[in-house]
Amino acid sequence: MSNTQKVVIVTGASQGIGAEIVKAFRAQGHAVVATARSIQQADDPNIIAVAGDIGERATARRVVDAAIENFGRVDTLINNAGIFIAKPFTQYTLEDYAAMLNVNLNGFFHITQLAIEQMEKNHSGHVLNITTSLVDHAVNGVPSVLASLTKGGLNAATKSLAIEYAKAGIRANAVSPGIIKSPMHAPETHEALGKLHPMGHMGEMSDIAGAVLYLDNAPFVTGEILHVDGGQSAGH
Fold this sequence. Notes:
alpha/beta; seven-stranded parallel sheet; 9 strands; globular
């Protein structure tokens, strides 16, 4: 492995934005450990797939161990895994609540702890969280209390991590997307969802991957919440 090749962990990597982020890092020549509940090993020897529930400590441990065993270090962690359940607040079940906490918060906590332990050994690293612009700009008709509770927590944690680890050479940033064309949204919904953005259309998965690459290659940027949302967070 060359000195310029990074080792990147991507959670929620089996499809959609996560898979696009994996593809973008591989196009840059970096090694990737990709994890999701059901993910298959690729033919590419520079992509290691680890299947499991990212909300469980044991899965996080296996992912970080795979990075060390196969590539020797961890340079970047992309906390992309997340779930969104849109229901009126009083209709959320305890199962809904537990599921969103498990993926969105536990999934961040366990693997970020373990990854930063490895980054500290090299006095460098980058943690990047994928959140949502709904945290900053709630949308009438899109009930999102649990999304805002969990992903808003990640926005706050991003800034705290950035300050705590700044002198250790470890950066923390977030990308806050609007509504993105991904397998999560059926094509027949795209026109209506696009109108929720001031720019009048949905974003592309490549928009998020591009923002991730920018932040990963911006050594003087930390504690940033980068909105990639067609102006949604700025207002209407």
